[in-house]
Fold HD domain-containing protein.
Amino acid sequence: MKSTIENTVEFVKEKLEGAEAGHDWYHIERVWKLSKKIAVTEDCNLEVVELSALLHDIADPKFHNGDETIAPKIAREFLEGQQVSEDVIEKVLFIIKNISFKNRGEVPAELPVELKIVQDADRIDAIGAIGIGRTFNFGGFKNNPMYDPEIQPSLNMSKDQYKKSNGTTINHFYEKLLLLKDLMNTAKGKELAQERHDYMLGFLDQFFKEWNVD
């Protein structure tokens, strides 16, 4: 008999078939692996960590007209079908609802360690070489300009402003990606984020040299 985790992997793979490349199964798989890597350094409920990592983007609101109720509903129905305990389900749904960068101003002051772990993993996958690739892929998906010297980054956006933003791909580094290193929750997350952060800084230096034909 397959385990709940194995069944969840199959469910997510099927659900995200054909998804935008930055938010597809491979993104989920990387976040899952990163979550497990961080979890071994923390005192946590590994089942909650793994299920949350696997289900955290099961229905990303940005691909569902901003609707943040779809993912928790899909996750609950699936987990109930797997006979997962209500306590674990509630913890997983809490993580799904509160993991997002855009929701950071709405989360409680005290966060469960499992959320800290999965959130770090998700944010680590948004930076570094993978993060650069995902950012340009999503910018192309939305047909956003790659860069426009006349458009300045919009810092300190509200949640609604962030959701509606159609700025340039390069500005997204300053509006979100370069901020993530200092938002890490765990010691392991901070360690993993530093190298990727430095890589992005080097990329941006090279990008502007080439843009300006230096």
Q: What stands out?
A: Residues 8 and 78 are 8 Å apart (CA to CA). The chain has a mean pLDDT of 91. The first helix runs from residue 4 to 15.
